[in-house]
Design brief:
By secondary structure, the chain is mostly helical. Helix content is 77%, strand content 0%. It has one domain (2-204): Up-down Bundle (Growth Hormone, Chain: A), CATH 1.20.1250. The chain is elongated, with a radius of gyration of 21 Å. It starts with a helix and ends in an 18-residue tail after the last helix.
């Protein structure tokens, strides 16, 4: 049961990241256009979020040792994703509207404005989702000699989830007429489910209380 829960957790985390990356370009395109710079910005910002999330996720796992610790950040990310169309638009508008109307936008900002917009909208949820894989490696590996196998399987499941996110976003969500808002709502619910799953995994991961070794009378005496 624990193996299934872990695989599902990292699969859905990888899935959500790629849905945000793919559908995020459509969200940004309405304000920044559909240029190569938008794709470059979206990919670059998400890779930065993933790199930081992987690094910090491992550190947090070494400190807390509980899957349930992920419940709060997953809940925050889920709510944030759900309300992306409503909450983030004013910040994107501020980035776009700071340039005087009727004047050409400097070339440097044509390139960097999409990166700023991507960071405002997608950095936080992708950073939180990146915590999952290294955290799951730490809390599910029970023996040092199995860490390599466990980490390989976890990152494989996460990557399979990302592959599913790419193709489902490109071939199903858009072709089926789902709006960007609906897709964000669906992804937000998925991430909120992960918050609940992390709490359930705590029960699966509970270990027997450590046995206290009592020193025998006279032991250690000279």
């Amino acid at each position: 049961m624990l193996k299934i829960a872990t695989a599902l957790f990292v699969f859905l985390g990888g899935f959500a990241v790629m849905v945000l990356e793919m559908i995020g370009t459509l969200f940004l395109a309405k304000d920044f256009g559909n240029s190569f710079y938008v794709w470059t910005s979206q990919i670059g910002v998400i890779l930065i979020a993933l790199a930081l999330g992987y690094a910090i996720g491992g550190t947090l796992a070494d400190r807390f040792h509980r899957a349930g610790f992920l419940a709060f950040p997953m809940a925050v990310a889920g709510v944030f994703i759900y309300f992306i169309p409503k909450w983030t638009q004013p910040f994107v508008d501020a980035i776009v509207n700071r340039h005087p109307r009727g004047q050409d936008i400097p070339a440097i900002w044509v390139k960097l404005d999409p990166a700023l917009g991507s960071a405002v909208v997608f950095f936080l949820p992708c950073f939180v989702l990146a915590l999952i894989s290294p955290y799951m490696v730490r809390v599910t590996a029970r023996r040092v000699e199995s860490i390599g196998t466990i980490s390989g399987l976890i990152y494989a499941a996460s990557t399979v989830g990302s592959i599913a996110g790419v193709f489902i976003s490109g071939y199903y969500f858009i072709d089926s007429g789902y709006t960007v808002t609906t897709i964000f709502h669906t992804t937000g619910v998925v991430v909120l489910f992960l918050a609940g799953l992390s709490l359930a995994m705590d029960k699966m991961l509970k270990l027997p209380a450590p046995v206290k070794i009592q020193q025998q009378p006279g032991a250690g005496s000279p």
